[in-house]
Specification:
The complex is a heterodimer of chains A (575) and B (428).
Chain A lengths: L17 E4 L5 H14 L11 E4 L3 E4 L1 H10 L2 H6 L4 H10 L7 H10 L4 E7 L15 E4 L6 H18 L3 H9 L9 E7 L3 E3 L2 E3 L2 E6 L15 E5 L4 H4 L5 E3 L13 H7 L3 E6 L15 E5 H7 L7 E4 L4 E4 L7 E2 L3 H4 L6 H16 L3 E10 L3 E13 L11 H4 L4 E5 L2 E2 L2 E12 L9 H17 L4 E6 L21 E7 L13 H8 L3 E5 L9 H5 L3 E2 L5 E15 L4 E5 L1
Helix pairs in contact in A: 1-12, 4-6, 5-6, 7-14
Chain B lengths: L7 H16 L3 H7 L4 E10 L5 E12 L5 E7 L5 H17 L6 E6 L8 H15 L8 E5 L5 H15 L20 H19 L8 E5 L3 H12 L3 E8 L6 E5 L6 H5 L10 H6 L3 E4 L10 E4 L20 E3 L8 H9 L3 E3 L1 H4 L2 H15 L5 H26 L3 H20 L3
Parallel strand pairs in B: 3-4, 3-5, 6-7, 6-10, 10-11, 11-12
Antiparallel strand pairs in B: 1-2, 2-4, 7-8, 8-9
Classes of the chains: A alpha+beta (575), B alpha/beta (428).
Chain lengths: 575, 428
């Protein structure tokens, strides 16, 4: 907590952007935000980003001491030891009392602020380079717009308790166990931060949210990995970090053509729904639900809100092409072209500046998160909320996989689309979904079944290879398997395969992606119609371990050998 | 522990006169506010367990109810006097005004020592006291709360008697009830916790971090215990506690250099705050006389027992290291002692602010009773903290800008509010 000023109740207007309530640690996320405030932002060239006002949205950090006191006062460690189900944990935390020494400050905060707040986890283990926990814990948005400060205080406290409770949800417990830690090793600070955005009717959201990386694992066209990549979405950043559809581009080559074969394919694969904070009455009041105060909406609503002027292209059926902007009637596609390709709005310069400044301060490749509030009519002036910076593991040396090895008869899986770098030669357990019986409508059930198998294998200390379809970790059930990180935390090798009905790209911006890198998991992607399909017949013929209805678990007679060469983008699993 | 020659009412009047001069109050306001608006003195015959009848003296004093129904505690104490109650009722008027809640000030009591009374005798006393006053009590007239040597169970008996007299349920008539009987979460803790909320703000002004602050506390009743509890929670150390020795019934001071262990100490205490000093000694506490707490070389002194505990006679004993005195009891520092402390640069957070947590929580209890709705402990404490801290800021600001002590600034704030309403009502 060194350096972070204490939250003061008087002089709200003069309050520093980052303050704290309670002592102890700040947690990884809050420490990152403080670093942004103190060191990254001062490095950004204001002249190159004219019209943009960049800052960390005002926030207060509840230190880990508050969490410790809450746990001790309410004897919650006893409950946690019995590993109860998530709803029991959430309920027990809601019923527990906040420590009396901190509630006055929280009330003062609720009294003085009436804009939406993001209640974000900031754990000790989160954003550790070796054990990243991105997206493992909850973030809860609260509209914080009730007339009565009592109601605002109550919602705020409920959200804080929910985030604390998420520390001990089953998926989080699994992730902690997979990192070789015990539940008591984790300490949870909580960030209470203003949400960047604008209100339109009952929706509050930023025009643009985004994730940027200084290293691009999948550069396309003339782009180089070191050019980095930025993924953008309309509305709250939940769309990107949970693996929904977003728009990716290289800040070095913002005008490069998108990686789609046709306009039709582009229209099919760009974002059509977005998340916003619900400023109206909650549809179903439920303090035990992370999305209690969120609502989804479509592009038509965003257009009516006036939010799309700088974000979309419009399809012209006559010429079968997309024209930037809203100039004509026709289907809208979220290409962000008016913003990214604008000569008047230095958006790509802003992206480059933010990424480079962050990389300089952390002295390694980084991932950043941000949200932008654009002037809806003119684009500028715009406010940029810098929401996160975290180190990014890029390992490209050591292992070499030649082209010829991909065609080795012993190869069960071969890929030219990999992440990571390394060898695993002791794994005998393979957990996979049967391509002949895969039903995209049941992906939630699949996630739950995987969680049970994962828990068993983690307890037995048996790392495994996981093979599934679509985008792992997405919140959009149509795009893949909506697992949380903790539900598959024991996997050492993850294979993403496509099927004709599930055919999507890996999301570079997602928390899931960050964890894949951070935990040094070897990742291979295989297309169903590519030259080297998965040898399903061999996998199916291996001895079975009792699995579940939709998930097959087999154990090979001999350990499999997994070799992944991230530099040359080749990987193979050999029997 | 009380000096029999000290007359707190004269002290309260003299204090009021001084502030009235400072504010330039007119004569009618002075005459109205320097005395109670009405008083009850009555005899309470009680048939004791041995079938003998014993007569107790009972009192209720209402100082002022211009801002709302009077509110005040009821004390069971063998040294109770009408003048003590008059002073306490007056201070309660100022206190409710300082924390800006719509209540006036009152105080009541019975001259008795509940240690010497059985449960049945105490119940009979509570019921008889209420019967005598029933017409003048109630949520619209005068609200009762626990004070010295009275607690939740006494309040239930009083409420039951009040409702028996009036019929129906009137939970707002008596506050300080246990939670299970319509009381508020946090009522027991409110006065002690509230004291620490103001102490915390005072420490900020002194640039003294709580985790480096060491305190000496007089009193181990509800206020003292909960003040110790929260002070330790925010990082402070309590080195000594003065209380009544349960064995000898004389005051004693328990000292442990590294800080007292509250839970352990509570194990040696009864519900009135008397401690078995022999057990404490066995547990490693140094036991000194009842005055020793004042001379401890600490940063903070918290008198949380009775009035006039720091006076002309013992103020010189206050250790040179003391920077802050936070009054948990009502009127524990005499005017002359405070003048001496001021000269030494010691900040005194007055009772009117520091121990207002109890009345605030009682007010919260009334609101909850009126709406038939319960707040969580966090809701109660957040309001308590917020309201007391806001009051501290307001008083502190006036103190700085006008060069007043915190007590005088608090009195100016409180008296001004009472005078304003009294004027608007046409009383003065």
């Amino acid at each position: 907590m060194t350096g972070v000023p204490v939250f003061g109740r008087s002089g709200d207007r003069d309050r520093p952007a980052v303050t704290r309530i309670g002592g102890g640690g700040l947690g990884g996320k809050a420490a990152g935000l403080y670093l942004i405030q103190e060191e990254v932002i001062p490095r950004i060239d204001a002249d190159a980003t004219l019209g943009f006002s960049i800052g960390v949205p005002p926030m207060v950090v509840l230190g880990t001491d508050v969490f410790d006191r809450f746990m001790a006062d309410n004897r919650l460690w006893t409950l946690i030891a019995s590993e109860p189900p998530d709803d029991r944990v959430a309920l027990a935390f809601q019923r527990a009392e906040m420590p009396v020494e901190f509630v006055g400050d929280l009330r003062a905060l609720a009294e003085s602020m009436t804009t939406p707040l993001a209640v974000r986890s900031s754990s000790r283990l989160e954003d550790d380079l070796d054990h990243p926990f991105a997206g493992v814990y909850a973030t809860k948005m609260v509209p914080n717009n009730a007339f009565s400060p009592d109601e605002r205080f109550r919602s705020l406290v409920e959200a804080i308790k929910f985030v604390w409770a998420s520390t001990f949800f089953a998926s989080a417990r699994s992730a902690v166990a997979a990192a070789g830690k015990a539940p008591r090793d984790e300490k949870m600070a909580v960030i209470l931060q203003e949400v960047v955005g604008q209100r339109a009717g009952n929706r509050f959201y930023p025009c643009v949210s985004g994730v940027g990386r200084t290293y691009n694992f999948y550069p396309s066209g003339a782009a180089k990995p070191s050019d980095g990549v930025v993924n953008l979405a309309l509305g709250l950043g939940r769309t990107i970090v949970d693996g929904g559809r977003s728009w990716g581009f290289s800040p070095a080559l913002p005008k490069a053509p998108p990686p789609f074969n046709s306009v039709g394919e582009l229209l099919k694969n760009t974002q059509i729904r977005f998340w916003a904070v619900n400023m109206g009455p909650a549809e179903v009041p439920d303090p035990l639900r992370e999305t209690e105060y969120l609502i989804g909406a479509g592009l038509a609503e965003a257009e009516a809100d006036g939010a799309l002027r700088f974000l979309v292209s419009t399809y012209d059926a006559g010429s079968d092409r997309l024209d930037p902007g809203l100039g004509r009637h026709g289907p809208r596609a979220l290409t962000f072209a008016p913003l990214v390709a604008s000569r008047l709005i230095p958006f790509t310069d802003l992206m480059r500046q933010m990424l480079e400044a962050s990389r300089q301060v952390l002295d390694q490749d980084v991932e950043i998160e941000f949200a932008v509030r654009l002037d809806r009519r003119h684009g500028l002036p715009a406010d940029v909320g810098f929401l996160q910076v975290r180190p990014m593991r890029v390992v490209t040396e050591g292992i070499e996989v030649g082209e010829d090895l991909l065609d080795d008869p012993a190869a069960v899986i071969a890929s030219t689309h990999v992440l990571g770098n390394g060898v695993e030669d002791g794994i005998r357990d393979v957990v996979f979904l049967d391509p002949d019986h895969f039903d995209p409508e049941t992906t939630f059930d699949v996630a739950a079944e995987l969680e049970g198998i994962n828990r068993r294998l983690v307890a037995q200390d048996r790392p495994y290879i996981l093979i599934g379809f679509g985008r792992w970790g997405t919140s959009d059930v149509r795009l893949g398997i909506p697992v949380t990180w903790g539900q598959i935390s024991g996997a050492k090798v993850i294979v993403e395969a496509t099927l004709p009905e599930v055919n999507t790209d890996l999301s570079q911006g997602s928390h899931f992606f960050h964890n894949v890198l951070g935990f040094r998991i070897l990742y291979l992607s295989v297309e169903h119609d590519g030259p080297r399909p998965i040898d399903w017949a061999w996998l199916r013929s291996r001895p079975r371990v009792p699995g579940t209805e939709r998930v097959i678990h087999c154990r090979t007679e001999q350990p499999l050998v997994v070799r992944v060469d991230g530099r040359n983008m080749r990987g193979v699993i050999l029997r | 522990m009380t000096d029999p020659t000290f007359n707190p009412f004269l002290g309260a009047q003299s204090q009021f006169d001084r502030i009235a001069d400072l504010m330039g109050l007119d004569q009618s306001a002075r005459e109205l506010l320097r005395r109670p608006i009405h008083e009850h003195h009555f005899a309470i015959p009680i048939r004791m367990d041995d079938r003998q009848v014993r007569i107790f003296d009972g009192y209720r004093v209402v100082h002022n109810d211009a801002r709302g129904p009077a509110w005040g505690g009821v004390r069971f104490h063998p040294q109770e006097t009408p003048d003590t109650l008059r002073a306490l009722a007056m201070w309660m008027t100022w206190k409710t005004a300082i924390v800006d809640i719509p209540l006036g000030g009152s105080m009541g009591g019975v001259v008795c020592d509940p240690h010497d009374l059985s449960r049945w005798e105490q119940e009979a006393l509570c019921r008889a006291w209420v019967r005598r006053l029933a017409r003048d009590l109630g949520p619209e007239r005068d609200v009762v709360a626990p004070d010295i040597m009275t607690h939740g169970r006494h309040m239930i008996w009083m409420l039951d008697e009040f409702e028996a007299v009036h019929g129906g349920h009137r939970p707002g008539a008596i506050t300080g009830k246990p939670v299970y009987a319509g009381g508020s979460q946090g009522r027991t803790e409110a006065a002690g916790y509230g004291l620490v909320y103001t102490l915390r703000e005072a420490l900020k002004e002194l640039s003294l971090a709580p985790d480096r602050a060491v305190a000496s506390v007089q009193g181990f009743g509800a206020v003292g215990r909960h003040a110790i509890d929260l002070l330790i929670r925010i990082g402070g150390t309590v080195r000594s506690v003065a209380c009544l020795d349960r064995n000898t019934k004389t005051p004693a001071t328990l000292i442990r250099q590294g800080g007292v262990d509250l839970e352990e100490l509570q194990g040696f205490a009864d519900s009135f705050g008397s401690v078995d000093c022999e057990k404490a000694r066995t547990a490693g506490y140094d036991i000194k006389d009842g005055e020793a707490w004042l001379a401890e070389p600490v940063d903070i002194v918290i008198p949380a027992a009775l009035e006039n505990q720091i006076n002309e006679g013992n103020v010189q004993a206050v250790a040179p290291s003391v920077k802050l005195i936070v009054e948990g009891a009502n009127g524990p520092t005499s005017e002359s002692a405070e003048a001496t402390l001021k000269d030494r640069g010691v900040t005194v957070v007055p009772d009117l602010l520091a121990n207002a947590g109890g009345v605030l929580c009682s007010y919260f209890e009334q609101i909850q009773a009126a709406s038939n709705h319960y707040w969580t402990l966090a809701e109660v404490m957040s309001r308590l903290d917020h309201q007391l801290t806001s009051a501290f800021f307001e008083v502190g600001e006036l103190s700085r800008t006008k060069g007043l002590t915190l007590r005088d600034a608090a009195l100016v704030v409180g008296i001004d509010r009472v005078v304003s309403v009294s004027t608007d009502r046409g009383w003065v």
